[in-house]
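To whoever picks this up:

The parser on our side crashed when reading a file containing two proteins. I've narrowed it down to the boundary between the first structure block and the second sequence. Both blocks are reproduced below exactly, byte for byte. First block:
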Amino acid sequence: MISFMTRIVTTTALALAGSAAVAAAQDSDAETGVIDQVQFGDVFSNMDVQVPEYTVNAASMATTMGNTAYASRVSGDVSAEISQQFDADATAETSLTGTTAGNAVTNTISYGNAASGGTDYGYNDYRAEQSAAGNVNASTRMDLDGAYYASTGTTAIANVSSTDNNFGTSVADQVQSSSANVTAETDADVLVNGGYTSYATTAGANATTATGYTSTNYNRARQSTEAGTTVQAASDVYMQEATDVSAISSGFGNSATVHNEWGYATLGVEGAPTVQTNAADIDTQSYVTLDNWSGYASSSAYGVGNSALISNVGSDTAIYADQYNSGTVGTQASFNGQSMTGGTGAVTASSIGNAASATVCNYCSDGAVGGRINQTNDGNTYAYGQTTSSGGTISGSATAIGNSATLQSAGD
């Protein structure tokens, strides 16, 4: 069911809320701050963990950030202005190799720019501007004879910005531009496992998030990626004897996400929408080969040029978004193997040029959803899926969508 708000939201609402936040931040009890960062030198991290004999717990973690800024307060009013410029190479690498482990975990993170801020019980006035160039790379290698539980997380994003507000009011304006090439890769050979294994690989150019609880939450994102750049996420998984396996690769050009509960929330406003322009090519791949598996097994690849998502619980919600995609968005997913125990396998490839949605859960209120979404896609969008399997049950789906928009309220 789609319903529209009777409340009229204008640029005045955002301006007034921003003025109130600034005025509150000027009180003697308020905190204000300005952070300005420039990084032109390469940043690199590498963690190599070897397991020559059985180990109960084995972990390998590496984190690389060109610029990182944090402007927050436990409670009270806060006003922050953050400016970050990155033009270099950011690389993070992890490896975990050897015999066997009870729990085997890797976590690899590479960011060009990372910023965050927020407060509780007060006004949060958050302004962040980020630009990234060069290359942002994250790679993970897991090569083990066996593990009971195994998981990898590999993430590479050029610009990341987030804000959080609880029991107050938040006004956030986040600006991001990327001319960087971004790559995230996972290569995993865990020959035998007993519990479950999960492999997650994510690559993106620009990402903003805003969260709140019992918060009035105004947000705007302005994001752009440059033509001729690429965003690539790839997972390659091989196992001999496997139980409950999940491999997911995700790639995006621009992503703006808001999640709020019990308070009016908006992503963009009338006259000052969230604007996303993606010209980068998005390439997402997931390859899974299992000689024999039991339980479930999945190989998923998801790619999107522009994504603008807002969700709320119990209160009015709005989205005002303009999206333009000219980059090619492609996904490839494959799953090959056999199951002698009647396992369930799935392969999924999904590509979207522009995706925008606003959702409110109003089971306990009369919260409504509305706004305006404009989408233009002149980039190619494709999705390929392939599977060869014997025994058990196998399903496959490939979905390619140019533009997708949803306004939805769920409840009584």
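<<boundary where parser fails>>
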Amino acid sequence: MKRFFVIALAVLFVVGMAGLAAAGNNPLKAAEKGVHKSFINEIPADHMVDVFKLHKVWQKAMADPAYRKKVYLIDVRTHPEFYAFHIEGTDHIHAGHMYTIPKKIKDPNAEIYIFCRTSHRAKYVAGFLYKYGYKNVYCVAGTTKNGKKYKGGVVGWAQAGFPFVNQFTGVFTIQEYRKHPSKAEKSFRVREFHPY
């Protein structure tokens, strides 16, 4: 009886894994793209800015305390992403908690810059903020400058060689932004905690 149960469980596992592999044609993926586009359409074209514009605004905010009180530079990545590294002096609200922004920023005319890792989440959040009634929201998206493509968000910021900070290392630049860990990084032998 145990042998039959183990064989049946193995068959169910194989069938389940085959079903997951076949789910690659996810009809919801196309729907998500349509919803995402609807939020992008909420953002005025001249309010889609690049990391170079963000850098200029950031420099001004860091140098001028009066301006810093009027502008919000909001990183909407997850908490682990933000604490690993972020742009110094920026604000942080996880994209999933964007509903808290109207409680924190009560002026609908506030100057707000939204960015994430690239720009996908930032476009959702910026679109939502326009739906909430904000008038002066900028989304940090990709661009091409001097023939080189730059992504939006912190990936584009890293590509441009702009600085980051975290509580452990201080100020640094990223020489190569990796979406996934390298083979060497995955080949560690002993680590107490690791994210992959």
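After patching the parser it read the second block fine. The longest helix spans residues 2-22. Residues 117 and 154 are 5 Å apart (CA to CA).
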